[in-house]
Amino acid sequence: MNDAYEVDDNDISTLVDNDQLQEELERTFGHCHDDFDESFDYNSRRSEKVLWLVALLSAIFIAAEFTGGFFAASLAIMTDAGHMLSDLLSFIISIVAIRTARHPANKKLSFGYDRAEVLGALISIIILWVLTAVLVLLAIQRICNGTYDVDPMIMLITASAGVAFNIIMAIVLYVGKAGHAHSHGGGSHGHSHGNGGNVNVRAALIHVLGDLIQSIGVLISAIIIKFTGFQIADPICTFFFSIIVLFTTIHVIRDIFYVLMEASPRHMDYNVIKQDLSSIDGVLSVHDLRLWSLNMDKTALSVHLAIENSENALSIVNGARDLVRRKHGISLSTVQVEEFDKTMNSCDKCIH
Question: Which of 141, 313, 158 is nearest to 236 (CA)?
């Protein structure tokens, strides 16, 4: 296989000195980061504001729920309040992660802090798992000891308020999750949708949905206790709905796993991107195409393009970068061109 196309000194001089060519390329293709970074920063700040609002609502209700749980002597309410307290901590972690992700790249972290958001979401989910395990153990302990002494009326009022608060917070987070990035430039418009919005807002929504399920469980147990006197319903509902909460985290954990493993984004079609690159005039072969997620919103790409005419190398590189940015929303791309060799069609490594 031939080595990658090399630019000689005369070519370098021509590229550097020809200001007219550079200006034309800039007008044609634009800068590769500006539009995407602006939209990413907008979505990041939007997500942060949403999380601050939800954190404030959580803090208000946590105080009310702990008070109600204390006077009702209800384990279900106290555990629900503890669950929300862990959520508040997770919201704060997520806010810190989002702020950290906006820090610029440096020599040590050349990709920047983009994955701080993913790590923040992972910590948030782990906290939820740990707390759920504790709640299940407390429920089992209460069942084994037979210690039931709850006030069903206070429990009913507090649980009803909990359902209402969690519905409000879920709506706020769902609206905040719906934002998506757009990329503008030249005479065309393109946009890309990530995996459902900022991962920390998604994790927060999972927490709140878990709280909502927990609050509904508390409400059901309060109704059962009030009208039947069956007080064991308090720990049973805590146990049952805590297990349900765990299953609500599966999708977020899956997406976090894919990002940390640098998998191709699920919303992008590898074959379509390869076909689009192959359709560029002058490109004879596309190989070593790599797609990976920096976070839930940013995708990186690297690819080798085998070309027939080295004189068109610069325009082909810029055309390829412009194509993946505008059509597929990929702002970070590395394109290497090389002279086409017939052996590329039979080389296993070049085929992929």
Answer: 141
